[in-house]
């Protein structure tokens, strides 16, 4: 017996086999959509999920944060840009605390950058903290938007990093604007990145 309803014409060329417009359409639409949904994967393939969990760990992020950032940026993260506040390098000549240093040492396959607030000097911070790949002067409160953009993007460019592959990690209200200025993938607070700082 044919699967066609009595009197129904067979679907023509180009028909997508969707629900017809005859009586009972609402039920057919529901059934058709349910069938289509079952054909579409609702989850990330296991291998991809495992790779992303591993990559999140390499970056020192929890998986949920990494997945959110990756979904927003559309690409992998290849750089982390910290403010000296986030790294707790605050007083003149101050050294990064042990917990922050260990967290950065554990990061794999990503550049670790810093924007340093005065009175600290980028060159001195970089020399004292070999765990960092590069450092620049942090934007000042008195600087224009274009000057802020230049400072943020310069340190990325020196490492050959597009903004969309860099996450900015800061610890002051103005620092959240660095992400927009640098066209970065995302902004995280220091306590979101360094779990011990939220304790």
- What is the CATH architecture term? 3-Layer(aba) Sandwich
Q: What's the number of domains? A: 1
Percentage of residues assigned to helices: 25-40%
From N to C, what is the helix and strand string?
A: HHHEHEHEHEHEH
Unreliable residue stretches? 1-6
From the N-terminal CA to the C-terminal CA, the straight-line distance is 70 Å
CATH topology tier name: Rossmann fold
Specify the oligomeric state: single chain
What would CATH call the homologous superfamily? HAD superfamily/HAD-like
Task: Fill in the keyword field for this structure.
elongated, 8 helices, 199 residues, Rossmann fold, single chain
Question: What does this 3D model show about the protein?
Answer:
By secondary structure, the chain is α/β, with parallel strands linked by helices. The chain has a single domain (46-198), classed as HAD superfamily/HAD-like (Rossmann fold, 3-Layer(aba) Sandwich). It has helices at residues 25-39, 46-58, 63-73, 98-105, 122-128, 145-158, 176-181, 190-193; strands spanning 79-83, 111-116, 134-137, 166-170, 186-189. A 5-stranded parallel sheet has the order 3-2-1-4-5, with helices on both faces. α2 crosses α3. The chain is elongated and about 80 Å long. Residues 1-6 have low confidence and may be disordered.
């Amino acid at each position: 017996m044919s699967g066609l309803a009595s009197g129904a014409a067979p679907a023509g060329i180009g028909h997508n086999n969707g629900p017809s417009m005859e009586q009972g359409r609402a039920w057919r639409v529901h059934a058709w959509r349910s069938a289509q949904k079952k054909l579409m994967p609702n989850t990330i393939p296991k291998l991809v999920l495992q790779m992303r969990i591993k990559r999140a760990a390499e970056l020192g992020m929890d998986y949920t944060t990494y997945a959110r950032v990756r979904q927003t940026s559309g690409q992998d993260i290849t750089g982390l840009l910290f403010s000296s506040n986030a790294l707790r390098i605050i007083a003149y000549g101050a050294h990064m605390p042990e917990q922050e240093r260990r967290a950065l040492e554990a990061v794999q396959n990503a550049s670790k950058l810093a924007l340093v607030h005065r009175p600290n000097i980028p060159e001195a911070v970089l020399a004292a903290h070999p765990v960092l790949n590069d450092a620049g002067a942090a934007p000042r409160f008195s600087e224009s938007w274009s000057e802020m953009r230049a400072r943020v993007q310069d340190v990325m460019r020196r490492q050959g990093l597009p903004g969309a592959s860099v996450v900015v990690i800061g610890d002051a209200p103005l620092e959240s604007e660095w992400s927009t200025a640098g066209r970065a993938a995302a902004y995280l607070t220091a306590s979101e990145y360094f779990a011990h700082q939220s304790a």
